[in-house]
Amino acid sequence: MTTPAPLQAPADLKEHLSTNPRSQAIDEHGFDLNLAYWNTRIGHLPGAPIRGENGDITRGRISRGSLFAMAGAAGQDESNEAAYALFWHSLAWGTGTSHRNTARRIASIESDIMGIGNALRRAAFVAPTDPEAAFRTLKPRTSLIKGLGPNFSTKYLYFAGAGQLEHPCLIVDKRVMTTLSRYTEKPLTPKHGTGYGYGTYATAIELMADWARQLTTPVRQIGFDEVERWAFKVGK
């Protein structure tokens, strides 16, 4: 059996990368958020409070760069405080102003603070080397945290990589899958809801990693997440 040729990186991805430096597209990508909303609800839980880049706990900006800076201790701190801190900050970053499942997610964590904290720490620890173990830690069969499907759990796994260019866990949400599905023979977008399994995740991250490698030059190494950022922007 012959191995199929790799899919050629899209021309518009190459153009996007040529006009969007990593510092701008990735490190500075963030949002000004209502942190008081979160802190009144999670103040009693490990990892709180959520702080903006200016240290404010009422309103402040959270960027990918600030989340990368929190990743180092998330897989090491046995108190689980660092893992929860990274989780809450990444959840706020990804949620924005839409809080459809926020209350359910918080309640789920309140029901098993220690067990979920241990899982978050383990997922952060293995994410840089074993994306399957990381993914299955937070979604062994169904989502470990109720109301938190892979659209959001993969954000946590991604930030656990501290911004490493070849970190193997990437954000794979509906918009990213919509874009990638345009270039694959078998669409990645789930038929029902937003949940998906590891096979879909692996296909998505392998494709984005391959495109990043194709477009890397001696002058600039393309981070895997730069492909994800492009896929999210065009995946409407």
List descriptors.
236 residues; mainly alpha; two-stranded antiparallel sheet; 12 helices; 2 strands; 51% helix
Helices and strands, in order, run as HHEHEHHHHHHHHH
Q: Main sheet?
A: 2 strands, antiparallel
Low-confidence stretches: none
Structural class: mainly alpha
Distance between the termini: 36 Å
Number of helices: 12
Helix share, percent: 40-55%
Spatial strand arrangement across the major sheet: 1-2
In quaternary terms, these chains amount to single chain
Task: Characterize the overall form.
Answer: globular
The percentage of residues in β strands lies in under 5%
Total beta strands: 2
Radius of gyration: 17 Å
Average pLDDT = 93
Q: Tell me the count of domains.
A: 1
Give a quick rundown of the structure.
With 236 residues, this protein is mostly helical. The chain has helices at 11-19, 22-27, 35-42, 64-68, 81-95, 102-110, 113-126, 131-138, 150-159, 174-181, 198-215, 224-234, and strands spanning 30-34, 59-63. The protein has one domain.
Task: Describe the secondary structure blueprint for this structure.
Layout: H1 11-19, H2 22-27, E1 30-34, H3 35-42, E2 59-63, H4 64-68, H5 81-95, H6 102-110, H7 113-126, H8 131-138, H9 150-159, H10 174-181, H11 198-215, H12 224-234
Antiparallel strand pairs: 1-2
Helix pairs in contact: 5-7, 5-9, 7-8, 8-9, 10-12, 11-12
Structure description:
The protein has 236 residues and is mostly helical. It has one domain (11-234). It is built from twelve helices and two strands, in the order ααβαβααααααααα. It has helices spanning 11-19, 22-27, 35-42, 64-68, 81-95, 102-110, 113-126, 131-138, 150-159, 174-181, 198-215, 224-234, and strands at residues 30-34, 59-63. Strands 1-2 form a two-stranded antiparallel ribbon. Helix 5 (81-95) packs across helix 7, helix 5 crosses helix 9 (150-159) and helix 10 packs across helix 12. The longest helix has 18 residues, at 198-215. The chain is globular, with a radius of gyration of 17 Å. The model has no long low-confidence stretch (mean pLDDT 93).
